[in-house]
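I'll show a typical protein example:
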Amino acid sequence: MDEQAKKDRQAAAVQNHNGSDLQSPSEPASAPPATANGLSRREIATAIPKIAVAAAAMAHEQPANAVYNMFVNKAPLSSSMWVCGDNANGNLGIGNISLKSSPVQLGSLSTWTSVAAGFQAGYAIKNGSLWTWGYNNYGGLGLNDTVLRSSPVQLGGLNNWAQISASKYSAAGVHTDGTIWCWGYNGGGQLGNNDTNWLSSPIQVGTLSVWTSVSASGGNSTIAKRKDGTLWGWGSNGYGSLGDRTIVNRSSPVQIGTLSTWNLVAAVQEHTMATRLDGTLWAWGRNDLGQLGLRDRNHRSSPVQVGSLSTWTVISNSQLFSAAIRSDGTLWGWGDDFYGELGQNSTSNNRSSPVQIGSLSTWTTVSCGYWFMTARRNDGTIWSWGKNSYGNLGLGDTANRSSPVQIGTLSKWRSVTASGPYIILLKP
């Protein structure tokens, strides 16, 4: 394996996405419409994304046990940003609300280091400063107002943002000093400040400076990891997604079990996945479509191991399905397959345990979106499959795919993040 391939394998990715045909109990029944494109209630709920990708093992990056958030792709070097898919609320950040079915560059800068895609809102870090754009009805952009933005606007004047994670109507980030900050909608207590009042500017969660990563879930909950390797959650907990053996909402952090060996975490609307330092994979929360990968459809309120392997290096999930990469570079998926998002050349063939996507062993990252997946191979190419109603697969059309198809011909992509029906790519 060449040196670049080794680095790609080491880059651990965590991402997530939310989706549901049921309204979250903690979400207001009169929530403002999230898009002007007439999405159904199930589509709107399913488009709640959270994906977090953690490129954490590079020697000059964070330590190998660092966790990055839901809907984050952290690139090791500065990059240009490219986007495609639905743009009804300016979430592509290109200054208009026109749909794009193939990647277009966002601005002209090449200094972006990490991105997070929320439900119709984007977030990105460059030189430690945080920039936001898109949907903003609950102040989720953190700009102290509720005004939609169709191009990036800096949040405050700080340049100490280390990581950002995006939810449905809220976001969370970690400063370089180890503090966590949250803002936006707060119906489930996901801002972690002991109440349920939404805020349009960042507020610190507690007073501790011990946090290394955060994953903001579209289901009104937040999962974060401390420097000591412990995992903590707060917010909505209707299906046990906080992993504390209850279904009681929490408006301040509560520890998930007692272990201090957690590595990567991917929090989604109503279920969570995480790996431990030994490479084992664990899941908990909602499981009606087998998205926990436990060979059944029973919900879990505490972590349960997925299979017996200790070779998982990359994880990503949607509320309805999940994906992961093993240390041998193979890609696996499970859960809902209504639109072919499991990449099996078929549709409507749900799986309650991991099934391999193709036969290749060259995958380095994967990101689950709005009933679709995107993934990167070690040659720098990006591939996508699943639902494509808004051109979110980046293939120049709106036709669904049930197996991986390459986006364009480039082999220089650094990362890809899938959200509600759109994607964000980084390129050197």
